[in-house]
Amino acid sequence: MANFNWRTINIDLLDPESPANFSTTSLAPALASVSASEVQSLSSQIKQLLRGGDSESALRGALENPPYGGDAAAKEVHLATVVEILQSIKQSEMSPMLSRIYGSDGGVEVLDVLMKYLYKGMSHASQPSSASTRSMSPQSTGFSQIHSRGGGEGGGQAMSVLLSWHEKLVEIAGPGSIVRVMSDRRTV
Predict the structure, then answer these.
(1) Of 9, 94, 105, 165, which one has the greatest count of Cβ atoms within 10 A?
(2) Alpha-helical segments (H) within 24-154
(3) Cβ distance 125 to 163 under 8 Å?
(4) Integer Cα distance of 139 and 104 in angstroms
């Protein structure tokens, strides 16, 4: 008998239905590419709705058309549009609006996209912007003034708005929305 250690054979490689032989590319859905100009035109249409006073339709329009297949610039433009919409809605209107969206067709998916934008907005608000590091002014004391008085470029106010929306969204959609967003491979 040969001196062969049977314990070292990876039997999963021999099984055709094994997860080791499974292509993970089929897990991520195919995404249509979106150009920055398309996102910019959608953004202008949404802002027109917002200026017209129809904030719920503006929010719904922004959330129903996320640029999953867009480049970084397109995603940044859309993020800025969504955050602008969220900042324009009064706090007393949040819960009724989210309840109406949740009760409508496709409402759960729309609120999941909103959760994605809330997390992305929070991650951007916590990072120092490159504009603030470019505008450093050396002081006569030898220290550099990095942020203006009041904590920077208004990031605290944006963070407060995003956290308020997060609280209301979890009240309406439940913690399942957080789990779905964290496990979704599509990013906004």
Answers:
(1) 165
(2) 36-51, 55-64, 72-88, 91-103, 107-126, 130-134
(3) no
(4) 56
Predicted TM-score (pTM) above 0.85: no
> Residue 10, exposed/middle/buried by CB under 10 A (0-12, 13-18, 19+)?
exposed
Provide the residue type at 11 as one letter: I
Q: In Å, how far are 44, 137, 154, 181 from 109, measured between CA atoms?
A: 23, 46, 30, 10
> CA-to-CA distance for 188 and 41, rounded, in angstroms?
17
Hunting for tokens 């007393």 — which residue is that?
Answer: 92
**Average pLDDT score over the chain:** 85
* Whole-number pLDDT of residue 140: 54
Sign of CA dihedral 111, 171, 166, 183: negative
- Please list the residues that pair with 144 across neighbouring strands: 138
Rg of the chain over all Cα atoms, to the nearest angstrom: 23
Give per-residue pLDDT as tens, 100-146: 999 999 999 999 999 999 999 999 876 665 444 444 445 555 554 44
87 φ/ψ angles, rounded to the nearest 5 degrees:
-70, -25
Q: What is the mean pLDDT of residues 149-158?
A: 62
Q: Quick count: other Cβ atoms within 10 Å of Cβ 125? A: 21
